[in-house]
Write a structure and sequence with these properties.
23% of the residues are buried. The chain has four helices and nine strands; from the N terminus they run E-H-E-H-E-E-E-E-E-H-E-E-H. By secondary structure, the chain is of the alpha+beta class. Helices cover 32% and strands 36% of the residues. The strands form two sheets. It has a seven-stranded antiparallel beta sheet.
């Protein structure tokens, strides 16, 4: 069964150059997983951090569950990420390198469990962002020309 993508962090791909990705589980409450399944998630301002040998997702917004009662969750609470000890040790080494950070790229559901795809990324400079936009526009133009060239003209 394929993964069901709930939220993409498109801003992360624009702001950062991602070198590696890995999958992490999330520790959630009942109302949080119900909101995630309803698609009420925003990862735009989220990031991950390793503190005291544990990985944490900070700044992710999971909207309160509409049918939730007084036990509803805090939308921007810090959530624990589930990773193996050796993965955390590797991430500590990678993120201590100059300019490297952990960025959530997407949140999805696999086999009924919420997962986060984390990227080890380096911040892009303004000229790198411009180059990326120019390359994307050029690729779109080539695809458009190839599409029109394939049409039969009468």
């Amino acid at each position: 069964m394929p993964d069901k993508t709930i939220a993409l962090n498109r801003r992360a791909r624009h702001e950062y150059a991602v070198s590696e990705t890995l999958e992490a589980g999330l520790v959630l409450t009942g109302t949080e997983i119900k909101s995630i399944r309803a698609g009420k998630v925003n990862l735009a301002e989220a990031y991950a951090r390793i503190e005291h040998g544990e990985a944490w997702l900070i700044g992710a917004h999971i909207a309160p569950y509409e049918q939730g009662n007084r036990y509803n969750h805090e939308p921007r609470r810090t959530r624990k990420l589930l990773l193996h000890r050796d993965q955390i040790a590797e991430l500590v080494g990678l993120t201590q390198a100059k300019g490297q950070t952990l960025v959530p790229l997407r949140l999805y559901i696999r086999d009924g469990r919420a997962k986060v795809e984390l990227g080890i990324a380096r911040g892009k400079k303004t000229h790198d962002k411009r180059r990326t936009i120019a390359e994307r526009d050029q690729r779109r133009e080539l695809e458009r020309e190839a599409k029109t060239a394939g049409r039969i003209k009468l």
